[in-house]
């Protein structure tokens, strides 16, 4: 069977389960709307953004609210546990595993830069836990920077089990970090959370778990999207780091610094330009083209698209190639050198030492 036919058979096999899951609509995937900020408890909230799932195109509409007192941005109403399962399904694993593994596996240079951020603070950590490790590609690449470090990984998807089987991590822990942290108390010289906190339903609980797992004098390394990036307003719903409905919380750097200090950490480094991933315009153009084109086949669609719709999709995407190429050039050669000066950095990185 050809790869295309095998993929079609796989999608067709998943379609009945998705059809049954969507029969009652998508409102049941959302919790009641909050009236106060989950970060500072202020009742002064304003709507920041309404959008849809622009990557998988699963049905549903999602709202981000902003706190006018502390600046925290959060999904409101937030996905329930059932909603998280539905929208994560077939993204990082299952149907999407091969695609995401290829995407993450091709970013070794970025992973090495993340590991290098620890060198001024601990040039030879013995033990490192990567929380939200996915398929463990960061750990595999970081060994080239820190060959004497033992890397473990933790995630709630089966990707961490794949990472252990492939030897990318020495130990793979599957489950929720706050639940597993008591068994990992003071075990690690470094705990990293790369683009993990924004996915969590309760970031404060995750930070407390990190404080438990890091040994005294050890370090916590965090990288998250920067909601204060100018791209966030310039690109609106087409800014990739919004990533709805998966990203639940967006913390301004000052908020996260204060929370870490309150938990017993000292922030020893803050990086913005170094954490920037120059893909904002490319991603925005791709999301817009993908939204305009007819859908490619997916098991949450009622039926597979016919030959005409597939041809139209191909035509729309091919027509957009020159714009995509232009976006790449601007991202890498025009905007990237100015990202720090113009506050375009789409992420920031904090290094914090446990006191």
TrEMBL record:
<dbReference type="Pfam" id="PF13489">
    <property type="entry name" value="Methyltransf_23"/>
</dbReference>
<protein>
    <submittedName>
        <fullName>SAM-dependent methyltransferase</fullName>
    </submittedName>
</protein>
<dbReference type="InterPro" id="IPR029063">
    <property type="entry name" value="SAM-dependent_MTases_sf"/>
</dbReference>
<keyword id="KW-0808">Transferase</keyword>
<dbReference type="GO" id="GO:0032259">
    <property type="term" value="P:methylation"/>
</dbReference>
<dbReference type="GO" id="GO:0008168">
    <property type="term" value="F:methyltransferase activity"/>
</dbReference>
<keyword id="KW-0489">Methyltransferase</keyword>
